[in-house]
Each structure stands twice: as structure tokens, then as C-alpha cells.
């Protein structure tokens, strides 16, 4: 049976202009974005450095948008309190960055945020399955984390299929190289939350790009899983 999951679009602000972050966030909300995807990189867990909780805190009064923070950091447990105080709505952390995913999920929930667990392309899906009954969302990376503008890895969709079979009501997010075509492929495998950076910001009409990703994601949902 097809679950009653909402298709959600999460523009990645990594492809926006950090000098005009609040403006870009509000534009995305006006254009129909469900989440604002904030890529947090520490230059250690991934070979790139972006923003941290202080930026989320400064941004919070300027947008009512849902702040979906994707932490690509070592020792994520150190930063959960700061993101809660900053006003994050959802915190995602990488399974590869911790030996105690269960405690991190509990901590995120205790601070009234939604919890998301994430895995890199080389990490087997079996590593996260034991935690999925505790989280609000799972993020299947479809590129190596660290940079926007990379090519979608279709072989990651097998992980999406495996998860969808076992967790029919869970939000499954995909991130990396997603445009309308990839959204359709991923949704057919069972994904319902689509992160897109380049495919939204690097087009003359970002509103249309969001609508197109939503249309293709909705059309294909669960037709191949
Ligand atoms: O987590 C990320 C990179 O690690 C980004 O969210 C992702 O790459 C989005 O950018 P694009 O849609 O351009 O691939
Ligand atoms: Fe991301």
C-alpha cells in the first residue's frame, strides 16, 4: 500500500549566496520550498568548510522556514545543543562520525528537534537500519558529501528501496546531484524528500525548478520499489 507521505523539496543554500542568506531563504520559502537545507561542514569530516550554529542563530529571526541542518562534522554530539539554541528544526548527523548514534538521536529529540541519520555512499545500509525506528528522517547521500554540483550516483537507490520496504512511513531524503530526472528516479525507489542545490539555484527560474522537482518526484513515487 502506498503510504501517506508528503513529497518535500529542500533547496540547499550551499548553492545560494551566503552574503544574502536570509534573502535566499525567504525566496525559497516563497517559491514553495518545504525545508531550507543547511550544509554544515567542518573541514575535518569532509574536505570543505561552510557554516556553523552561529549562522543559523543569526538567520533564525529572518525566516519562518524549516531549518533542516545537515551536519557533516566529526563528533556531532558536541554541537547538538548549539543547533537547538540557534533554532534548528531538524538535525541530521552522519553514522560514520559516531559510535553512539542512539544517544545522539535521544539528545536531538530531548531538545525538541527532529532527528535525521545519514550515511555516505560507501557505508552499507545495514549500518543504519537498527536506528531507523527512532529517527524522523533518514538521508541517503547520492554523492560523496563535501561539495555541491556533483553527479548523482544512481546505485544509491538500492539503499532507498531497502529502507522503504522496511519503513513505509519514514521520511527518506536524498541529497546530491538531484534535479527533476533524478527526483523521479529516487522517488520511484521510495524517496520522498529531495535536496537540490545546483538544480535550483543555478537556473534562471528557481521557482520553476522547485515545481518541476516536485512534479517529477510526485509522479514517480514508489513505482519501482
Ligand atoms: O550535502 C551536500 C553536499 O555534501 C549538499 O546538500 C548537496 O551536494 C546539494 O548540492 P547539489 O544539489 O548541487 O548536489
Ligand atoms: Fe546536504
Please describe what this structure looks like.
The protein is an alpha/beta fold. It has one domain: Aldolase class I (TIM Barrel, Alpha-Beta Barrel), CATH 3.20.20.70. It contains 8 helices and 8 strands, in the order E-H-E-H-E-H-E-H-E-E-H-E-H-E-H-H. Strands 1-8-7-6-5-4-3-2 form an 8-stranded parallel β-sheet. Helix 2 packs parallel to helix 3 and helix 6 runs parallel beside helix 8. The longest helix has 15 residues. The protein starts with 7 loop residues before the first strand and ends in a 5-residue tail after the last helix. Belongs to the ribulose-phosphate 3-epimerase family. Its cofactor is Co(2+); Fe(2+); Mn(2+); Zn(2+). This is Ribulose-phosphate 3-epimerase. It is an enzyme of class 5 (isomerase).
